[in-house]
From TrEMBL:
Lineage, opening ranks: Bacteria, Pseudomonadati, Thermodesulfobacteriota, Desulfuromonadia, Geobacterales
EC number(s) stated in the UniProt entry for this protein: 2.7.13.3
Keywords: Coiled coil, Kinase, Membrane, Phosphoprotein, Transferase, Transmembrane, Transmembrane helix, Two-component regulatory system
Superkingdom of source: Bacteria
Domain named Histidine kinase: residues: 424-513
UniProt protein name: histidine kinase
Any coiled-coil regions, as ranges: 261-295
GO molecular function: phosphorelay sensor kinase activity; protein dimerization activity
Ribosomal protein listed as a keyword: no
Stretches assigned to the HAMP domain: 207-259
SUPFAM superfamilies assigned: ATPase domain of HSP90 chaperone/DNA topoisomerase II/histidine kinase, HAMP domain-like
Amino acid sequence: MFNKISVKLTSGFGICLLLLMTVVAVNFQALQKLEKLYHRTVQCGEELELASDAQHIGEDLYQIIANSVINRDLAGSARLWTAGKKTALEKLARISRAAETREEKADVGLAGQAISDIVDIYERQMLPLIQRGAPVPGPLSEIDAQIDQRIDIIEISLRHFAQSVSRDAQATNANYHQVLNATIRSGLAISLAGVLIAFATSAWVTRLIVRPLREVTRAILGMERGEHPVQIAHKSNDELGILADSFRTMSGRVEKRTAQLTESNAKLQREIGERARAEEAVRTLNAELEGRVRERTAELTSLYEHLQTVREEERASISRDIHDDLGQLLTAMKIDLQWLKKRLPGDDARLAEKAGQLEGYFNDAIGIVKRISADLRPVLLDDLGLSEALEWYGREFTKRTGIACTVEIDCDCAHLDQDRSTALFRIFQEALTNVCRHAEATRVCATLEESGEELLLRVSDDGRGAREEELRDPRSLGIVGMRERARFLGGALAIESRPGAGTSVCVGIPLGKAPEGVAL
Ligand SMILES: Nc1ncnc2c1ncn2[C@@H]1O[C@H](COP(=O)(O)OP(=O)(O)OP(=O)(O)O)[C@@H](O)[C@H]1O
Ligand SMILES: [Mg+2]
């Protein structure tokens, strides 16, 4: 309870207030004393003034007496005498009240006796003579001498009194100034001491509160800068002590947590390093793999090119052999059969019938040989070019399958190189084969046209269409082959097909120079 900051502050403030009140009280007492002295000094001054004024009481009375003697105005002189006498007695009464010492009282007593003598002499002795009209020289002169004597007594005795009062006044005045100076000095000293003590007290109380606060603040700032460990020495039972204790606890926790975090961070850094190394290894492996894949792809590509070339050459060779050898042989056999048929006995109908049948078989065989030979390598493609070959193949397709096939050519393909002609023809063949095998179509429409720098072949049917999965079936190689042929010539193949909406195969091949080494 007594250790709380508020108690410390209140105590400090209370001590300062007490000191202030003490200083004020002491100064107030000194001022009161000074005020009394001041009144006394003023009073002394007044008394001195009165005393010096009173020295002339006798003269004032004598002035009235002289007037009454000279003017003989009894009524006026009586009024003046009454007023002068009253004034003189009042002044004497005031002086009597101011007299303090025995000598002063004696002086005032002498002056009072002299005034009453003057009054007595004037009223008892002079006034009757004046009323009777006595001349000035004579008894009045004698009485006048008595009055002069009393006036001197008044003046002398009151001068003594005035001198005594003056001494008192001077002493009082000197005392007043002495006390005033002493009061000012002591007041200043007490005030200064009070201020100094109050300042020291407030500084002490402030230090009591501020020092630990500063220590806590320094520690908090140190912690903010990340300094560890942060120490606080302050210990007390007040709020600052509680604050310092809490800070110590918190600092301990922060230190512990920081150590944990540092450890975790180091672990994380190690893991990141390991992961980076692993990623680097994976990247290296990937690069190696990619290199190998590229190499393998290049190998496969050239193998594919080679295979396509060999395949085309094989096809052409087989086609030639079938056409030239087998076709010639069959034709020769058919000619021989016709020769035999002409020499058959005329009466044997069965022989004639058999010969006719045999001729029919030969015709069929020759037709089949022609078709196979044309399928393998259409002579038209080499002799007349792509347009003729496409139109011929479309007609043959219709004949064979009964599916109407129209071929529209809108370009001059006479000078098209063999690679492109062969690729487009094979794509056309595969597209029509697919129509025959899968489309259930009644009509096929093929167009070949030039579009910018490209040659576009589109084969569209009105068949059942195909699902996406069918077109991407990994076991089917027809579409893959078409796409590969287009790709090797720098072109691309796209298939638009939806179930129930037919299929459209579109291939675009650039008309520029064929890629080097590509021969399909
Ligand atoms: N014109 C079409 N109409 C409907 N379906 C088609 C058409 N063309 C292709 N398909 C579908 O796409 C699949 C893939 O055709 P692709 O030519 O690749 O293989 P395939 O003809 O089945 O076999 P092959 O490898 O002998 O050509 C076909 O099995 C068929 O289901
Ligand atoms: Mg196919």
